[in-house]
Design a protein that fits this description.
Number of strands: 0
Structural class: mainly alpha
Oligomer: single chain
Strand content: under 5%
Largest sheet: none
Order of helices and strands: HH
């Protein structure tokens, strides 16, 4: 499998999801999801898929 760097938009969306999870964990911002793990997991999966799929 040949991996490639994700596009900048994909990377920023993943960073924003991770940041929202951190802000929600410390009650700085309420995102509405009851589980911060879901936000972190979505960000991580987005990075993994963006690395595995060319052009994403």
């Amino acid at each position: 499998m040949k991996l490639s760097a994700p596009k900048q938009v994909t990377w920023w969306i993943a960073i924003i999801l991770g940041g929202l999870a951190i802000l929600n964990e410390y009650d700085i911002l309420s995102v509405g999801l009851g589980n911060n793990f879901v936000l972190l997991l979505l960000g991580y999966l987005l990075l993994v898929i963006g690395t595995a799929v060319k052009g994403l």
